[in-house]
Design a protein that fits this description.
With 269 residues, the protein is an alpha+beta fold. 50% of the residues lie in helices and 11% in strands. A hairpin with a 2-residue loop joins strand 3 (213-217) and strand 4 (220-229). The protein is elongated, with a radius of gyration of 22 Å.
Amino acid sequence: MARNKNFSAKMRWWRKQRGISQLDLAYRAGISQRHISFLELGRSEPSREMIELIASALNVPLREHNALLVAAGYAPVWRETNLGAPELAEIRRALNYILTQQEPYPAVVVDRRWNLLMANGGAAGLIDFLVGPLTPGAKVNLADALIAPDILRPFLLNWKDVAGYFIRSVEADAAADGTDETAALLKRLTAYDGVQALNTASLANPSAPVLPMHFQKGDTSLSLFTTIATLGTPQDITLQELRIESFFPMDNGTDEVLRAWGSKRGRRP
């Protein structure tokens, strides 16, 4: 019965998080509302197949789909493979291809919590210019780098707007995936100096089609916007949580700087 209550609480949390009624969930899952009610009350034990229906209807991420299974007393079904594992060689090849095609513009691959997993030469060059070269093997979290007071913030002229927008995206992530890890990331970011006082009202009247990042260091000015892509039809937790962020110049001056840096990298022996 304890396991039933654990599953029931998680199922009810996800339904409310998605903002749908028991009737709506019943329609999506193709079962009766009475059955949904019994599952949420712990009066019915879910089968593996029923959990699959519920998780699919609620669009529950693979990691939390496993958590629903475990809460109901079943073994998890979705694996979480290290990105460096041999079985993901073709995925890594595809990611490297994307990063290479983005040159000389920066591009990175990060996980759900913005930990840096891969970067192209353009991204390494940008980081090197702003804060110095990365230490080989060092763990880098791009969310901390953006929000913390002493890394990228001193060089980001419109930090308040960019940080405000980014914090809202992490809030959305925390609501969407329901994990303790994303909630902890959000708590850590909002604890940095100046974050609680961010005023995002200026975003209500944007002057550009996208929000750029305006970097300034010495006489060099860079204006960049980003795109974020994910892998289609992932069947592995690691792959579902991957993000590919690509940076593009917002003006000709930025384009010229990035291409000049790329040319210098290409001439190195």
